[in-house]
Amino acid sequence: MTQKYIAHYVDHEELIEYLRTKKPKRRDYIPYLMIEPIESFDAESFRCYFLGKNEIGDRSLADSAWHRLTEWDITINSTFIDYFEKRKDCYVTFDGVTFYKIVDVRILKDKTLEIHLKKLFNPTYTEKNTAFMIMPFGSKKLNGFYRKEITAYFEKELKIKISRADDYTDNDVIIDRIYREIEKAEFVVCEITECNKNVFYEIGYAKGINKQLIFIAQRGIKDLKFFDVAHIRRIDYDLENPVELQEKLRDTIRSLREKY
């Protein structure tokens, strides 16, 4: 018989609260469903059935009282289905520490619900409508372009607050502040035109915590000596044509939001 695990449904707000405090509140993780894995795609994702409990008096806790949820059961157990269909983030956890995102819900021929879960690696608190810009600061022309064409467009047209490391003047250690801003940003925009090791260091950190990265580079970029960027999908742009870049950034952000 397939091993079953008690799973707890966690909505986005509960996950954020945990990430903020690192102290899971047990009342937030009331047992909601059991889970029966049926096939692993890799070490960190798998397909599974969610199991509902038949109400048969005192026998409801017996193993035989559990059944695979079907399309009909949506009327009873609809929370995570509603969230998924509305493209809201929804998760399950087995221990209140490790979280799995529901990435797909399918109805099979026998009307059984099949759920695909993927483990979140180093989940972090993300603040909606925020972005962080990773770029070098040495070019006055590029700095001006960032202020006039990127910052203004993000905040006015996309309603997204975008910032970069030198926007903060507090007494925090600068690298710690960069880490925090990357962690909470919904999107990270990476300007990779110049051969700047600090830029790629920050990109590596953002990539390591699974942030949504958007790469941009001026046309005519040369191969970097210490990093191969040929395989990276990026937006190429000209400083003299900011509208083209702005439209591509808008479309990319829209696409990422629809996907996740």
Give structural notes.
The protein has 260 residues and is an alpha/beta fold. The chain has 2 domains: 115 residues, no CATH class; 133 residues, Rossmann fold (3-Layer(aba) Sandwich), CATH 3.40.50. It has 6 helices and 12 strands. The strands form 2 sheets. The chain has a 6-stranded antiparallel barrel. The chain has a 5-stranded parallel β-sheet with strand order 9-8-10-11-12. β2 and β3 form a beta hairpin. α3 crosses α6. The radius of gyration is 22 Å and the shape is elongated.
* Sheet of most strands: 6 strands, antiparallel, barrel
SS content category: alpha/beta
Instruction: Let me know the number of strands.
Output: 12
Uncertain stretches: 26-30, 55-64
**What percentage of the residues does DSSP assign to strands (E)?**
25-35%
CATH class of the largest domain: Alpha Beta
Q: Count the domains.
A: 2
H/E element string? EHEEEHEEEEHEHEHEEH
Return the CATH topology of the largest domain: Rossmann fold
Can you describe this structure in just a few lines?
30% of the residues lie in helices and 30% in strands.
List keywords for this structure.
260 residues; alpha/beta; Rossmann fold; 2 domains; five-stranded parallel β-sheet; 12 strands
Task: Write the SSE topology.
Blueprint (H helix, E strand, L loop, with lengths): L4 E7 H10 L11 E10 L2 E9 L12 E3 L10 H7 L4 E4 L5 E9 L5 E7 L7 E8 L5 H19 L2 E3 L10 H11 E7 L5 H12 L4 E6 L15 E4 L4 H18 L1
